[in-house]
Amino acid sequence: MTVIEIVTMVFFSVQQIMAPATQQVLRATALGPGSKSGHTQFFDVQAHRGGRGSTVENLLPSFAWALIDGATTLELDNGVTKDGVVVVWHDEEIQARKCQDTVPAFPGDPDFPYVGKNIANLTLAQLKTLDCGSKRQDEYPEQLTYPGTRISTLQEMFDFVGCTDPKHQILWNIESKIDAVHPNKTTSVEEFVDRQYEVFAGSAYKRFITYQSFDWRTLVEMKKRDPTITISALVDDETSYIPDGSLSPWLAGLNPFNPSTPEERALLNASTPSERVAQAARLIGANILSPSAESYVSPTSDPNLDGFSWFTTPGMVREARKLGLEVKPWTVNRLNIVDRLVEWGVDGIITDYPSVVRRWAQQRGLPVAPKYPKQRVLACLEQHMKRN
User: Fold this and answer.
1) Which of 1, 40, 117, 270 has its CA 20 to 30 A from that of 88?
2) Are β-strands 86-88 and 288-291 bridged in parallel, bridged antiparallel, or unpaired?
């Protein structure tokens, strides 16, 4: 049986099992806007990597400032260590431009130094020796640094945010950083999903977690484990389109840019590739489509300049909404792009500058999430940094 046949079978089986009324209940529970609980009642301003425009990324301090700045959703990335622990970090490899070695985890550790090695090949104890808070990134000159800050586990992140948010209102968008092209760089799809879901299931935030990935195989696997969890299909030029028309390894066997079999053409029947991207996301059971706002081939990052190229299109947004998907593009750091996307009907914005997009939303009369009390957040940060 081909991957397309499996996806088709799963899709239509789910449709038959779930009565329309049940589907509406699950959508309201999973996606939020209809349920009006927690932060789901607000326009979704997502703090990308905690808001790396203002604070070193994916560390406890970055999420502290996202709470202080009034983000609706905390967007973060996960890796899985050699000993099976889920950690909050974006890159598969520990990069020298972001982290620096301190001391080995134990005397004579043959893996030391750790910078340059993959998270999947390091234990949590080894990762915990790294200083990832000292280096400001050149492309984000306003970043606050927090020298000596260690990478956190996902459980430590939940514990810290729970200290500042005792009613558990904040939303989460958690990405699996798994490599569909180089499988040896990360753990397997099944292990990655199992490890993450174990932490999700034990969290008071479970009902407010969106699970996202560029590797749509992980989204299919997560839905198998828990059909009620909200999943978001990340997509861009590199993961959706192969120049020679061959199948992308990222999209769980679907090929929206070049449907080549009768089965694919029947399933992906929209008139444009961007609309077929939305159809493909729906076929794997996604609740949200999360496309790159601009194309990687765009020669400029400003839509007011000649040559700017969109990846997200009005047709993509319309098709997604017609299929019942929300649309939340990334990573949007220009308000003239925000203007256009919201005109097209998107449901949220993933940004490195959540305080700026929140201010924009306020000016437009959109409901925005409350800011968390700065004194309480920083007190919790100090407390949990000592533990970490």
Assistant:
1) 40
2) unpaired
Give which of 386, 379, 360 is closest to 70, Cα–Cα. Answer: 360
Residue 336 lies in a domain: yes
Specify the pTM. Answer: 0.91
The runs of H, that is alpha helices, within the chain are 3-17, 20-31, 60-68, 124-127, 154-164, 189-201, 216-225, 237-240, 262-267, 273-283, 314-322, 335-344, 354-363, 374-387
Residue 104 belongs to a domain: no
Summarised one tens digit per residue, pLDDT across range 91-133 is: 999 999 999 999 999 999 999 999 999 999 999 999 999 999 9
- The amino acid present at 120, given as its one-letter code, is A
The answer to whether position 132 is within a domain reads no
- 176, 180, 243: which is closest to 211 by C-alpha? 176
Asked if the bond preceding 104 is cis, omega within 30° of 0, the reply is no
Neighbouring C-beta atoms of residue 329, cutoff 10 Å? 26
- Rounded to 5°, angle at Cα 369 from 367 and 370: 120
Tokens found for residue 212? 């996202």
Q: What is the pLDDT of residues 350-365, one digit of tens each?
A: 999 999 999 999 999 9
Give backbone dihedrals phi and psi of 386, rounded to 5 degrees, phi first. -65, -35
How many domains does the chain fold into?
Answer: 1
